[in-house]
DNA sequence: AATTCATGCAACCGCGCATTG
DNA sequence: TCAATGCGCGGTTGCATGAAT
Protein backbone atom coordinates (compact mmCIF):
# COMPACT_ATOMS: atom_id res chain seq x y z
CA UNK A 1 0.00 0.00 0.00
CA UNK A 2 1.60 3.21 -1.15
CA UNK A 3 1.20 6.66 0.19
CA UNK A 4 -1.83 8.68 -0.77
CA UNK A 5 -1.28 11.02 -3.71
CA UNK A 6 -0.74 14.62 -2.76
CA UNK A 7 -3.50 15.79 -5.05
CA UNK A 8 -6.24 14.58 -7.30
CA UNK A 9 -4.18 13.56 -10.28
CA UNK A 10 -7.20 13.35 -12.52
CA UNK A 11 -8.19 16.94 -12.01
CA UNK A 12 -4.89 18.72 -12.13
CA UNK A 13 -3.24 20.11 -15.16
CA UNK A 14 0.23 18.90 -16.01
CA UNK A 15 2.89 20.08 -18.34
CA UNK A 16 4.26 23.51 -19.08
CA UNK A 17 2.81 26.50 -17.32
CA UNK A 18 0.97 29.08 -19.33
CA UNK A 19 1.62 32.81 -18.86
CA UNK A 20 -1.87 33.11 -17.39
CA UNK A 21 -1.14 30.49 -14.79
CA UNK A 22 2.13 32.14 -13.98
CA UNK A 23 0.43 35.46 -13.54
CA UNK A 24 -2.22 33.96 -11.33
CA UNK A 25 0.31 32.24 -9.15
CA UNK A 26 2.51 35.25 -8.84
CA UNK A 27 -0.32 37.62 -8.17
CA UNK A 28 -1.77 35.45 -5.46
CA UNK A 29 1.52 34.97 -3.67
CA UNK A 30 2.36 38.65 -3.87
CA UNK A 31 -0.99 39.44 -2.29
CA UNK A 32 -1.41 36.68 0.23
CA UNK A 33 1.80 34.73 0.38
CA UNK A 34 1.95 31.00 0.05
CA UNK A 35 -0.20 30.50 3.09
CA UNK A 36 2.23 27.97 4.44
CA UNK A 37 0.40 25.13 2.79
CA UNK A 38 1.24 24.27 -0.76
CA UNK A 39 -1.23 21.43 -0.92
CA UNK A 40 -4.09 23.79 -0.31
CA UNK A 41 -2.57 26.57 -2.35
CA UNK A 42 -3.90 25.74 -5.83
CA UNK A 43 -7.49 25.77 -4.68
CA UNK A 44 -7.07 29.08 -2.93
CA UNK A 45 -5.28 30.60 -5.90
CA UNK A 46 -7.72 29.18 -8.39
CA UNK A 47 -5.21 27.02 -10.15
CA UNK A 48 -5.80 23.54 -11.47
CA UNK A 49 -2.35 22.45 -10.52
CA UNK A 50 -0.80 20.17 -7.99
CA UNK A 51 0.46 22.03 -4.95
CA UNK A 52 3.89 20.65 -5.47
CA UNK A 53 3.86 21.87 -9.00
CA UNK A 54 2.91 25.35 -7.81
CA UNK A 55 5.70 25.32 -5.30
CA UNK A 56 8.20 24.23 -7.90
CA UNK A 57 7.08 26.85 -10.37
CA UNK A 58 7.30 29.58 -7.77
CA UNK A 59 10.62 28.57 -6.35
CA UNK A 60 12.33 27.88 -9.62
CA UNK A 61 10.97 30.54 -11.93
CA UNK A 62 8.58 33.05 -10.54
CA UNK A 63 9.96 34.21 -7.25
CA UNK A 64 11.95 37.42 -7.35
CA UNK A 65 15.66 37.59 -8.00
CA UNK A 66 15.88 34.32 -9.84
CA UNK A 67 18.92 34.32 -12.03
CA UNK A 68 18.82 32.56 -15.36
CA UNK A 69 21.37 32.21 -18.08
CA UNK A 70 25.04 31.47 -18.19
CA UNK A 71 26.89 30.37 -15.12
CA UNK A 72 29.97 32.35 -14.36
CA UNK A 73 33.37 30.82 -13.77
CA UNK A 74 33.01 31.72 -10.14
CA UNK A 75 29.73 29.87 -9.95
CA UNK A 76 31.30 26.91 -11.72
CA UNK A 77 34.04 26.90 -9.19
CA UNK A 78 31.66 26.98 -6.27
CA UNK A 79 29.52 24.19 -7.66
CA UNK A 80 32.56 22.12 -8.34
CA UNK A 81 33.98 22.68 -4.92
CA UNK A 82 30.77 21.94 -3.12
CA UNK A 83 30.07 18.88 -5.18
CA UNK A 84 33.45 17.58 -4.24
CA UNK A 85 32.72 18.06 -0.59
CA UNK A 86 29.06 17.25 -0.21
CA UNK A 87 28.00 15.52 -3.37
CA UNK A 88 24.70 16.09 -5.08
CA UNK A 89 23.15 18.17 -2.35
CA UNK A 90 21.78 20.62 -4.82
CA UNK A 91 19.74 22.61 -2.38
CA UNK A 92 22.77 23.26 -0.25
CA UNK A 93 24.82 24.15 -3.26
CA UNK A 94 22.06 26.43 -4.45
CA UNK A 95 22.08 28.18 -1.11
CA UNK A 96 25.60 29.33 -1.87
CA UNK A 97 24.63 30.75 -5.22
CA UNK A 98 22.21 33.63 -4.85
CA UNK A 99 19.53 33.58 -7.48
CA UNK A 100 20.23 30.06 -8.58
CA UNK A 101 17.88 27.20 -7.87
CA UNK A 102 18.74 23.67 -7.06
CA UNK A 103 17.00 22.52 -10.19
CA UNK A 104 18.98 24.94 -12.28
CA UNK A 105 22.24 23.83 -10.78
CA UNK A 106 21.33 20.20 -11.08
CA UNK A 107 20.50 20.63 -14.74
CA UNK A 108 23.62 22.60 -15.33
CA UNK A 109 25.71 19.96 -13.68
CA UNK A 110 24.11 17.10 -15.54
CA UNK A 111 24.17 18.71 -18.93
CA UNK A 112 27.34 20.73 -18.97
CA UNK A 113 29.62 20.69 -16.00
CA UNK A 114 29.79 16.94 -15.73
CA UNK A 115 30.55 16.68 -19.41
CA UNK A 116 33.38 19.06 -19.00
CA UNK A 117 34.85 16.79 -16.40
CA UNK A 118 34.23 13.69 -18.41
CA UNK A 119 35.80 15.34 -21.37
CA UNK A 120 39.00 15.57 -19.45
CA UNK A 121 39.64 11.91 -19.62
CA UNK A 122 37.78 10.72 -22.64
CA UNK A 123 39.93 8.69 -24.89
CA UNK A 124 40.98 9.08 -28.45
CA UNK A 125 39.55 5.70 -29.32
CA UNK A 126 36.30 6.72 -27.81
CA UNK A 127 36.34 9.83 -29.89
CA UNK A 128 36.99 7.89 -32.99
CA UNK A 129 34.22 5.48 -32.25
CA UNK A 130 31.75 8.25 -31.84
CA UNK A 131 33.26 10.51 -34.45
CA UNK A 132 34.59 8.28 -37.21
CA UNK A 133 34.83 11.26 -39.47
CA UNK A 134 37.75 12.37 -37.43
CA UNK A 135 40.43 10.75 -39.44
CA UNK A 136 43.71 10.18 -37.83
CA UNK A 137 46.56 12.02 -39.25
CA UNK A 138 50.07 11.51 -38.23
CA UNK A 139 52.30 14.45 -38.08
CA UNK A 140 55.29 12.59 -39.30
CA UNK A 141 56.08 9.62 -41.44
CA UNK A 142 53.95 7.28 -39.48
CA UNK A 143 50.70 6.40 -41.13
CA UNK A 144 49.01 4.32 -38.51
CA UNK A 145 46.42 5.78 -36.25
CA UNK A 146 47.57 6.62 -32.78
CA UNK A 147 51.08 5.90 -33.67
CA UNK A 148 53.83 7.90 -32.18
CA UNK A 149 57.44 8.48 -32.56
CA UNK A 150 59.89 8.42 -29.81
CA UNK A 151 63.13 10.03 -29.19
CA UNK A 152 65.30 10.52 -26.20
CA UNK A 153 65.21 14.24 -26.23
CA UNK A 154 62.67 16.79 -25.34
CA UNK A 155 59.01 16.22 -25.57
CA UNK A 156 56.34 18.33 -27.02
CA UNK A 157 52.69 17.75 -26.59
CA UNK A 158 50.59 19.64 -29.01
CA UNK A 159 46.96 19.78 -28.43
CA UNK A 160 44.08 22.10 -28.32
CA UNK A 161 41.80 23.35 -25.68
CA UNK A 162 38.65 23.95 -27.59
CA UNK A 163 35.84 21.54 -27.66
CA UNK A 164 34.74 19.76 -30.76
CA UNK A 165 31.15 20.16 -29.93
CA UNK A 166 29.38 23.11 -28.52
CA UNK A 167 28.86 21.43 -25.23
CA UNK A 168 32.45 21.01 -24.28
CA UNK A 169 33.58 24.43 -23.43
CA UNK A 170 37.16 25.01 -22.51
CA UNK A 171 37.75 25.05 -18.81
CA UNK A 172 41.36 25.59 -18.14
CA UNK A 173 42.03 22.21 -19.47
CA UNK A 174 45.72 22.39 -18.97
CA UNK A 175 45.17 22.29 -15.27
CA UNK A 176 42.81 19.45 -15.51
CA UNK A 177 45.00 17.22 -17.52
CA UNK A 178 46.31 15.30 -14.65
CA UNK A 179 44.70 13.68 -11.73
CA UNK A 180 46.40 12.14 -8.80
CA UNK A 181 44.47 8.97 -9.35
CA UNK A 182 46.14 8.50 -12.63
CA UNK A 183 49.37 9.42 -11.07
CA UNK A 184 48.88 6.90 -8.37
CA UNK A 185 47.86 4.18 -10.70
CA UNK A 186 50.91 4.35 -12.82
CA UNK A 187 53.99 6.36 -13.11
CA UNK A 188 53.90 9.02 -15.72
CA UNK A 189 50.20 8.94 -16.06
CA UNK A 190 48.83 11.63 -18.18
CA UNK A 191 45.25 12.35 -18.97
CA UNK A 192 44.31 13.95 -22.15
CA UNK A 193 41.03 15.70 -22.13
CA UNK A 194 38.57 15.25 -24.87
CA UNK A 195 38.90 18.79 -25.94
CA UNK A 196 42.58 18.34 -26.10
CA UNK A 197 42.51 16.27 -29.18
CA UNK A 198 39.50 17.28 -31.14
CA UNK A 199 38.44 20.74 -31.80
CA UNK A 200 37.59 23.40 -34.19
CA UNK A 201 39.82 25.92 -32.60
CA UNK A 202 43.20 24.48 -32.39
CA UNK A 203 45.90 25.39 -30.03
CA UNK A 204 49.20 24.10 -28.92
CA UNK A 205 50.12 23.09 -25.47
CA UNK A 206 53.37 21.91 -24.09
CA UNK A 207 54.03 20.09 -20.89
CA UNK A 208 57.28 20.38 -19.16
CA UNK A 209 59.05 17.85 -17.10
CA UNK A 210 61.69 19.13 -14.86
CA UNK A 211 63.24 17.01 -12.19
CA UNK A 212 60.48 14.49 -12.53
CA UNK A 213 57.87 17.12 -12.19
CA UNK A 214 55.42 17.59 -14.97
CA UNK A 215 54.65 21.20 -15.35
CA UNK A 216 51.63 22.64 -17.02
CA UNK A 217 51.33 26.19 -17.94
CA UNK A 218 53.85 28.84 -17.57
CA UNK A 219 54.58 31.95 -19.39
CA UNK A 220 52.97 30.81 -22.54
CA UNK A 221 49.92 29.47 -20.87
CA UNK A 222 46.59 30.30 -22.21
CA UNK A 223 43.53 31.41 -20.51
CA UNK A 224 40.81 28.87 -20.40
CA UNK A 225 38.09 31.31 -20.93
CA UNK A 226 39.26 32.86 -24.10
CA UNK A 227 40.89 29.82 -25.57
CA UNK A 228 44.13 31.55 -26.13
CA UNK A 229 47.28 29.62 -26.46
CA UNK A 230 48.93 27.60 -23.77
CA UNK A 231 52.31 26.06 -24.04
CA UNK A 232 53.58 23.24 -21.92
CA UNK A 233 56.50 21.02 -22.43
CA UNK A 234 57.60 17.62 -21.38
CA UNK A 235 61.19 16.82 -21.50
CA UNK A 236 63.08 13.58 -21.19
CA UNK A 237 61.83 11.54 -24.03
CA UNK A 238 59.66 12.23 -26.91
CA UNK A 239 56.88 10.19 -28.27
CA UNK A 240 54.49 11.45 -30.71
CA UNK A 241 51.31 10.17 -32.01
CA UNK A 242 49.89 11.92 -34.90
CA UNK A 243 46.45 13.12 -34.16
CA UNK A 244 44.02 13.16 -36.92
CA UNK A 245 41.64 14.57 -34.48
CA UNK A 246 41.47 17.75 -36.34
CA UNK A 247 38.10 16.97 -37.73
CA UNK A 248 36.59 18.50 -40.72
CA UNK A 249 37.78 21.95 -39.94
CA UNK A 250 41.12 21.17 -38.58
CA UNK A 251 42.69 18.71 -40.87
CA UNK A 252 46.16 17.42 -40.50
CA UNK A 253 47.87 20.43 -39.22
CA UNK A 254 45.40 21.24 -36.59
CA UNK A 255 44.98 17.72 -35.42
CA UNK A 256 48.55 17.02 -34.70
CA UNK A 257 49.14 15.59 -31.31
CA UNK A 258 52.55 14.96 -29.97
CA UNK A 259 53.29 13.39 -26.72
CA UNK A 260 56.24 12.12 -24.96
CA UNK A 261 57.15 10.59 -21.67
CA UNK A 262 60.15 8.83 -20.41
CA UNK A 263 58.88 5.45 -19.41
CA UNK A 264 58.04 2.29 -21.19
CA UNK A 265 54.39 2.13 -20.28
CA UNK A 266 52.22 5.14 -20.60
CA UNK A 267 48.94 5.39 -18.89
CA UNK A 268 47.80 8.45 -20.65
CA UNK A 269 44.09 8.15 -20.58
CA UNK A 270 43.38 6.91 -17.20
CA UNK A 271 39.86 8.04 -16.69
CA UNK A 272 38.79 7.64 -13.13
CA UNK A 273 36.67 4.58 -13.10
CA UNK A 274 36.43 4.77 -16.80
CA UNK A 275 38.25 3.47 -19.76
CA UNK A 276 41.94 3.38 -19.60
CA UNK A 277 44.37 3.42 -22.41
CA UNK A 278 47.75 2.11 -21.71
CA UNK A 279 50.42 2.49 -24.25
CA UNK A 280 52.61 -0.48 -24.23
CA UNK A 281 54.85 -2.54 -26.39
CA UNK A 282 53.29 -5.34 -28.31
CA UNK A 283 54.98 -8.46 -29.43
CA UNK A 284 56.43 -6.83 -32.46
CA UNK A 285 57.88 -4.04 -30.47
CA UNK A 286 55.36 -1.46 -31.52
CA UNK A 287 53.61 0.49 -28.90
CA UNK A 288 49.91 0.26 -28.89
CA UNK A 289 46.96 1.71 -27.04
CA UNK A 290 45.11 -0.83 -25.02
CA UNK A 291 41.56 -0.49 -23.86
CA UNK A 292 41.28 -1.23 -20.21
CA UNK A 293 37.67 -0.69 -19.36
CA UNK A 294 34.45 0.83 -20.49
CA UNK A 295 33.77 4.50 -20.36
CA UNK A 296 31.26 4.80 -17.65
CA UNK A 297 31.48 7.62 -15.21
CA UNK A 298 29.50 7.72 -12.05
CA UNK A 299 29.17 10.68 -9.80
CA UNK A 300 31.52 9.10 -7.33
CA UNK A 301 34.11 8.79 -9.99
CA UNK A 302 33.65 12.33 -11.06
CA UNK A 303 33.98 13.40 -7.49
CA UNK A 304 37.18 11.48 -7.31
CA UNK A 305 38.26 13.06 -10.48
CA UNK A 306 37.65 16.44 -9.00
CA UNK A 307 39.03 15.75 -5.60
CA UNK A 308 42.01 13.89 -6.89
CA UNK A 309 43.59 17.15 -7.74
CA UNK A 310 43.31 18.23 -4.16
CA UNK A 311 41.28 21.25 -4.94
CA UNK A 312 38.63 21.87 -7.42
CA UNK A 313 39.85 25.37 -7.79
CA UNK A 314 43.09 24.05 -9.02
CA UNK A 315 41.47 21.48 -11.10
CA UNK A 316 39.14 23.27 -13.34
CA UNK A 317 39.56 26.88 -13.06
CA UNK A 318 42.27 29.33 -13.10
CA UNK A 319 42.14 31.69 -10.24
CA UNK A 320 43.61 34.63 -11.99
CA UNK A 321 43.03 33.65 -15.58
CA UNK A 322 46.50 34.65 -16.47
CA UNK A 323 48.57 31.65 -15.69
CA UNK A 324 47.93 28.01 -15.37
CA UNK A 325 50.43 25.84 -13.73
CA UNK A 326 50.07 22.41 -12.33
CA UNK A 327 52.94 20.42 -11.05
CA UNK A 328 52.78 16.74 -10.76
CA UNK A 329 55.12 14.07 -9.65
CA UNK A 330 55.48 10.99 -11.69
C1' DA B 1 13.66 20.14 -47.71
C1' DA B 2 12.97 16.31 -44.85
C1' DT B 3 14.51 13.43 -41.44
C1' DT B 4 17.26 12.03 -37.65
C1' DC B 5 19.92 12.92 -33.75
C1' DA B 6 21.66 15.44 -29.78
C1' DT B 7 21.06 18.69 -26.31
C1' DG B 8 19.06 21.58 -22.73
C1' DC B 9 15.65 22.47 -19.67
C1' DA B 10 11.14 22.48 -17.37
C1' DA B 11 8.42 19.61 -14.96
C1' DC B 12 7.11 15.31 -12.71
C1' DC B 13 7.67 11.57 -9.44
C1' DG B 14 8.73 9.13 -5.41
C1' DC B 15 10.86 8.99 -1.15
C1' DG B 16 12.74 10.60 3.28
C1' DC B 17 12.34 13.84 6.88
C1' DA B 18 9.99 17.02 9.93
C1' DT B 19 5.99 18.48 12.07
C1' DT B 20 1.62 18.04 14.14
C1' DG B 21 -2.17 16.15 16.59
C1' DT C 1 4.53 6.91 20.78
C1' DC C 2 2.68 6.73 16.48
C1' DA C 3 0.16 7.74 12.40
C1' DA C 4 -1.05 11.28 9.17
C1' DT C 5 0.26 15.05 6.60
C1' DG C 6 3.06 18.31 4.17
C1' DC C 7 7.54 19.83 2.60
C1' DG C 8 11.73 19.49 0.28
C1' DC C 9 15.06 17.06 -2.22
C1' DG C 10 17.24 14.42 -5.85
C1' DG C 11 16.59 11.53 -9.79
C1' DT C 12 14.34 11.01 -13.97
C1' DT C 13 11.45 11.97 -17.92
C1' DG C 14 9.62 14.17 -21.88
C1' DC C 15 9.38 17.89 -24.94
C1' DA C 16 11.14 21.75 -27.67
C1' DT C 17 14.79 23.29 -30.27
C1' DG C 18 18.79 23.34 -33.04
C1' DA C 19 22.36 20.84 -35.52
C1' DA C 20 23.71 17.34 -38.50
C1' DT C 21 22.92 14.25 -42.19
From TrEMBL:
Keyword entries, A-Z: DNA-binding, Nucleus, Repeat, Transcription, Transcription regulation
Domain of life (superkingdom): Eukaryota
Domain Myb-like: 9-62, 63-113
Pfam family, one: Myb_DNA-binding
Kinase in keyword set: no
Domain HTH myb-type: 9-62, 63-117
Protein name from the UniProt record: Uncharacterized protein
SMART domains per UniProt: SANT
Record localization: Nucleus
Gene3D superfamilies reported for this sequence: Homeodomain-like
UniProt entry tagged with the keyword Membrane: no
Amino acid sequence: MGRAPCCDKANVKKGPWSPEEDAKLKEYIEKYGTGGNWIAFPQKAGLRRCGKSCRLRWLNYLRPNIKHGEFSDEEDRIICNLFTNIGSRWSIIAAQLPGRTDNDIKNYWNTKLKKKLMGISILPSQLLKSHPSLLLQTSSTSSSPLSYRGSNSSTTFYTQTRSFTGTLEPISFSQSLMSSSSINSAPSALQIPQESVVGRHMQQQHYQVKDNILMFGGEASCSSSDGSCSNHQITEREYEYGGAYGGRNGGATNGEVKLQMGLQNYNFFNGVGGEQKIMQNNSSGNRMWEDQAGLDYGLEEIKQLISSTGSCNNFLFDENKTEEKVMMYY
